Amino acid sequence: MRTFSGIVAALAIMGWTVGAATAEPAGSTPLDSLAACPANARADSPVLLIHGTHADVEKSLGPVRQALLDDGRCVYGLDYDSDEPLSTSVDYFTAAVGRIRAVNQVDSLDLVGKSQGALIARAVSLQFAARAVNPIRTVVAVSGPQHGTSPAGLHLTLPTGSAVPQGLPFLSPAMADMIAGSSYLTRLNSGPMVAPGVRYVMTATAYDQIVTPYTTAFIDAPGVTNILVQDGCPEDHTGHLAGSTDPRTVDLVLHALDPVRHPGVRCTANDNGK
User: Fold this and answer.
1) Which of 4, 33, 39, 102 is most buried, taking the most CB atoms under 10 A from its CB?
2) If 0-12 CB within 10 Å is exposed, 13-18 middle and 19+ buried, where does residue 118 land?
3) How many Å apart are CA 274 and CA 267, to the nearest integer?
4) Where would one find the signal peptide in this protein (predicted)?
5) Residue 5 has pLDDT above 50, yes or no
6) Cβ neighbours of residue 274 closer than 8 Å, sequence gap 6 or more
7) CA dihedral 190, 194, 200, 204 (to 10 degrees)
8) Burial of 20 by CB count in 10 Å (0-12 exposed, 13-18 middle, 19+ buried)?
9) Which residues are CB-contacts of 78 (< 8 A; sequence separation ≥ 6)?
10) What is the pTM of this model?
């Protein structure tokens, strides 16, 4: 086991510092609690899972996490306050990437995000875009509002043609940030949507009633593979929430991370449209 001083030194070399705990959002997993991968973990990039709004890793990506653990992968799942502004969560997970790399002395990580977590995962990859080598190897985004969800997805009604109101008292900062046209998404998407050298796999379901339209989960850019769950499996009617346990969605994530070990993707009828 590496000493704390050794971890601090490694972080400093990578350009990261172990800052004061007060810099971490309240309720989030303390980064200094993250230990190295188990000694018996498969020699591959660690996987960092990022859950969705008002959920946790088990609710958002539980079957994915279990399948990766069964596969011998090293998996991290961190708690965070999904009501915080997206910029706060992105900074937190960017720091988490640095911590995980340092304690494991690895060069790269894979990110898997569901819903809000999928948007955060892409934003984290962009934080490293200026580097000669991006430490993010693969981003797998499940039903992420990459272009923002329509107000209908959050059950809001806005006047036609009106701008997105900021600071709505009944919306958390994160939810306001995820509405199409928000100031956060306008800034995030004002440049390249993806980072060079990173592989992106974006999945969506046509029956999504939260991230709407479902095509907002897709990005048209080099290095991006967009996958609709129903392509090749029209009987899978999984909705946004049900996608967390939908067998085909789980298999698509595993296939995206390691197509050699997971070449097959199930097609299972699913009428859970929630």
Assistant:
1) 102
2) buried
3) 19
4) 1-20
5) no
6) 239, 240, 241, 242
7) 0
8) exposed
9) 28, 29, 34, 48, 49, 50, 57, 93, 96
10) 0.88
Number of Cβ within 10 Å of residue 165's Cβ equals 13
pLDDT of 53? 96
Q: Among residues 72, 65, 154, which one has the least CA distance to residue 114?
A: 65
> Which segment of 37-41, 81-85, 160-164, 193-197 scores lowest on mean pLDDT?
160-164
Close Cβ partners of 22 (under 8 Å, ≥ 6 residues apart)? none
How many Å apart are CA 231 and CA 154, to the nearest integer? 26
Q: Where are the domains of the chain?
A: 4-257
- The sheet with strand 199-204 has its strands ordered as 75-77, 47-50, 109-114, 136-142, 199-204, 224-228
Structure token pair of residue 120: 């955060």
H helices within the chain, ranges in order?
4-13, 57-70, 86-104, 116-127, 173-177, 183-188, 247-257
Residue of 86, 48, 64, 116 whose CA lies nearest to 255: 64
pLDDT in tens, 61-116: 999 999 999 999 999 999 999 999 999 999 999 999 999 999 999 999 999 999 99
Task: Return the closest-CA partner of residue 82 out of 59, 101, 107.
Answer: 59
